[in-house]
Amino acid sequence: MTRDRDTSAPPCRRLNEPLRLDLADPATLRQLWELQRAAYAVEAALIGFDGIPPLHETLQELRGCNESFLGIADETGLAGAVSWTRPDDGALDICRLVVHPRAHRRGIATALLDHLDAMESADLTLVSTGTANHPALALYKRRGFTPTGERRIAPGVTVTLLERKTAAPANGQPVQTT
Question: Which of 75, 78, 69, 159 is nearest to 120 (CA)?
Fold first, then answer.
């Protein structure tokens, strides 16, 4: 028995390993800026609000944001990125998680967060996303984050604040607590 191959499906693009992004490199900065504009345009449509600050950020503002970045690329270019800071309290604050619309549903956000978790252990990890951004909320909840509140950013628009606490048991392996 022979089966015809479905040639209408897009080819699967191979992903590279997540790497640190150097925003001092003009080409990297431009790719990240274009990526986040595309990704935040999707979130703006989901939450009904186009005032998301990174959506309107200039190249100079992005370069000076004082966040650390990891990116992941495919054959087309930068497909996703995550950024974070470490406030004085030692928490890991995830500032941005963006995936290009051409690369949705390919595990990029999960790969970036997995790599970040392996690189940056933290007793407390914080993140926020638009309350109406159900795909992002589901991703964070699957990763052990719990909502801690909402913040109104515009009339009828809120962001959900989430956190994940990790405790180290006697065997030294981190355990997520909720």
Answer: 69
